[in-house]
Design a protein that fits this description.
46% strand; 8 strands; 2 helices; 116 residues; mainly beta
Length: 116
Amino acid sequence: MLIQVVKSKIHRARVTQADLNYIGSITIDEDLMKASNIIEGERVQIVNNNNGARLETYAIKGEAGSGVVCLNGAAARLVAVGDCIIIIGYGFMDFEAAKTFKPALVFPNEQTNLID
């Protein structure tokens, strides 16, 4: 049996941009993506700590070292620049393997979104 588990988490990143006119997705600093094992095109869940909104979209790479976290398209209506969000990636695993699996957890600097 396969179950879905958290495989990646970027905890308490700050939204740096919101671009309503872009065609969907969330742009994430490439360094944050690498550290959290999130790949381009991966489906992710976004949880907004400021307003409680939850949404799903897909990740695209932003410039490494930029700290960019930009919600694009319709998702831009659910955030404001400066909002604190959690970005979660899930994966399917064998039930027994999932019992000992450890997800990649990233806690960026809350002011810069960079990894200290």
